[in-house]
């Protein structure tokens, strides 16, 4: 069992679930309530979306088979996947993955699940490979195909730049596990700006612009590692905003209508007060990734403590100086020791974990944990909604919206909830 609820906590959650009506807002209570093919109203509708993680930026914990099939434990990210095996073999495997991991059927299912957005992570190497960089290109055509599927199903798209040259955070999901070299080389930063410019020019124009409505400048830059990193990231955000809003140059006289999203770097949202505001800035949103997973403080935490932390997060979102989204979150909480978890998330290993088998206490916890998080992201402060991480995963059920929905760990329809911040947090 991953999480054990104290009987009193379980009884309290069950009582609150029965006593409270479902929450929703009249503007966007369900997909049935609006025309799927009208333009999404970002001033009133709430984003309810999923990431398509592990597709164009491969991640070992989402698709371990792709990595295990190489037979090489040194292959831990997309860089080494392309570098440490025969190139023809790597390219064949990647093209098969791009073609089959997410298909047209997934977009039909995403829409049927009541979701209205997808966040699609891409690496800079989709558009730009230089020198000795080993990355294999070719995924752009599959991204274009995905946008077509999204359009057919009334789904809006956020394109998220997940990996920058030199790596902005040193994690495998940046494309290259290792040192954070991005802020130390101006060429890396300039290349990143140009990737944003290219993405915005293409996808911020017809025939894509009715479907691709948002662009994220950079995923999870590790601004806390140094003052230099924070300084470089802020200047990059300014330059990348210009590139995304005016990809053809201001003198051209036309601009994109994209919502431009920047990640908070895991700082409090108020840290960014006064930034990217004022004359010359419009439609700027901030992205906060809310996880209780990856830190030492997240190990050996009780279910009640996980719930209490969501309650405590309300002040952060209430004081956001920007419209806010959570571009990534999940119901996953650590089931194992930090060392085991590092093995599972940093490479292709897995944690030894027991399955909940539909036990009521685990499902009650996950339902409450999901409900409170999405109410936080939709209704607190300038909350505009959320993107679950992620739509599908091979082995980790909680990282799969698709699987968690089938198992009853999250609501079958994303606007129906039994647990509410005002009641649960008052009792926490």
Automatic annotation (TrEMBL):
Q: Which GO terms describe its cellular component?
A: cell surface; extracellular region
- Glycoside hydrolase family domain span: 89-245
GO annotation terms (biological process)? glucan catabolic process
Q: Which residues form the signal peptide?
A: 1-19
What superkingdom does the record give?
Eukaryota
An example molecular function term from Gene Ontology annotations: beta-glucosidase activity
Which Pfam family name is an example for this entry? Cellulase
Does the UniProt entry include the keyword Transmembrane helix?
Answer: no
Q: Which UniProt keywords apply?
A: Glycosidase, Hydrolase, Signal
Similarity comment: Belongs to the glycosyl hydrolase 5 (cellulase A) family.
Instruction: Name the chain's protein.
Output: Glycoside hydrolase superfamily
Q: Which organism encodes this protein?
A: Papiliotrema laurentii
């Amino acid at each position: 069992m991953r999480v054990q609820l104290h009987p009193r906590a379980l009884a309290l959650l069950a009582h609150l679930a029965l006593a409270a009506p479902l929450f929703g807002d009249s503007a966007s209570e369900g997909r049935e309530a609006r025309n799927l093919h009208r333009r999404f109203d970002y001033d009133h509708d709430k984003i309810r979306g999923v990431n398509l993680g592990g597709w164009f930026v491969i991640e070992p914990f989402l698709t371990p088979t792709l990595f295990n099939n190489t037979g090489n434990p040194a292959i831990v990210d997309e860089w080494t996947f392309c570098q440490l095996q025969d190139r023809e073999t790597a390219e064949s495997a990647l093209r098969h993955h791009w073609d089959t991991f997410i298909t047209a059927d997934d977009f039909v299912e995403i829409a049927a699940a009541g979701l209205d957005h997808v966040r699609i992570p891409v690496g800079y190497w989709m558009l730009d490979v230089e020198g000795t960089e080993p990355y294999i290109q070719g995924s752009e055509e599959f991204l274009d195909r995905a946008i077509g599927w999204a359009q057919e199903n009334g789904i809006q798209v956020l394109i998220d730049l997940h990996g920058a040259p030199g790596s902005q955070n040193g994690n495998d999901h940046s494309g290259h596990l290792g040192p954070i070299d991005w802020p130390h080389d101006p060429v890396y930063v300039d290349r990143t700006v140009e990737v944003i410019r290219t993405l915005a020019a293409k996808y911020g124009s017809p025939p894509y612009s009715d479907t691709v409505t948002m662009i994220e400048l950079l995923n999870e830059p590790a601004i806390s590692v140094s003052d230099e990193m924070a300084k470089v990231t802020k200047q990059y955000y300014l330059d990348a905003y210009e590139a995304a809003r005016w990809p053809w140059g201001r003198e051209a006289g036309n601009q994109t209508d994209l919502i431009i999203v920047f990640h908070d770097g895991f700082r409090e949202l108020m840290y960014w007060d006064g930034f990217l505001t004022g004359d010359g800035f419009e439609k700027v949103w901030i992205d906060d990734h809310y996880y209780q997973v990856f830190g030492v403080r997240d190990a050996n935490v009780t279910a009640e403590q996980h719930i209490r932390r969501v309650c405590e997060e309300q002040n952060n979102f209430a004081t956001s100086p920007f419209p806010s989204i959570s571009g990534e979150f999940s119901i996953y909480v650590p089931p194992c020791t930090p060392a085991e978890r590092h093995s599972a998330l940093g490479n292709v290993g897995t944690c030894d974990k027991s399955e909940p088998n539909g036990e009521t206490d685990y499902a009650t916890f996950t339902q409450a944990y999901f409900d409170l998080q999405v109410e936080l992201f939709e209704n607190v402060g300038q909350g505009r909604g959320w993107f679950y991480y992620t739509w599908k995963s091979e082995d980790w059920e909680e990282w799969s919206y698709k699987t968690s929905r089938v198992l009853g760990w999250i609501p079958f329809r994303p606007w129906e909830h039994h647990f509410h911040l005002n009641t649960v947090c008052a009792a926490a």
